[in-house]
Amino acid sequence: MVSFFKKLHSVNRNANVYEILRRYFAMNAFDGTITTLGVIMGAFIAGITEPKIVLVTAISTSFALFVSGFWSAYLTEEAERKLALRNLEKKLLCSLAKSRLGRFTKFIALEAALVDGLSPFAMSLIIITPFAMAYFSMLSVLEAFQYSVAIALCLLGLLGAYLAVISKQNVFTLGIRMLFAGLVAIVLAVLLKAI
After folding, report:
1. pLDDT-based confidence at 126, cuts 50/70/90?
2. 64 Cβ contact list (under 8 Å, min separation 6)
3. In 3-state terms, what secondary structure has residue 173?
4. pTM value?
5. 135 is in which domain, residue-wise?
């Protein structure tokens, strides 16, 4: 098993897979955070006072994000990897099916799919934690809304900081830019209430 993961790591490094995984993580963590923020703001504007309703809605949305991310990434990456392998085989004039790269093509697609599906799912679960606490009467519903929005905004700021670190940009600037996206989502939700 250790040998398998060493070989997979080697293929990942040589095929720039880690770069793709970072990109999938950042994009889909962002999507999951903004989507869950939208669900929470929608519930708040609709006047929902039952934490179970918010939990069920947010969890079902996070499952949909997981399935969508997993399936689309797996099929896309598998197709792209097979195309790249075929193009390489044409250049080398031989089959690479039994090569390390050929054998790990499906695993690379699976890695991408897991990152793509799990990143929005995890963000969503983190954000709705206050509603689980409200369900068990540890917080009021209003506090759950407040804490969930605050957690979502913090996650966006941290995601921006993460992107800044890997791209060697200003952490504060990129964190604020990500945070701004969350604030735009909140403002749009509040404007919707005014209609």
Report:
1. very high
2. none
3. helix
4. 0.85
5. 2-194
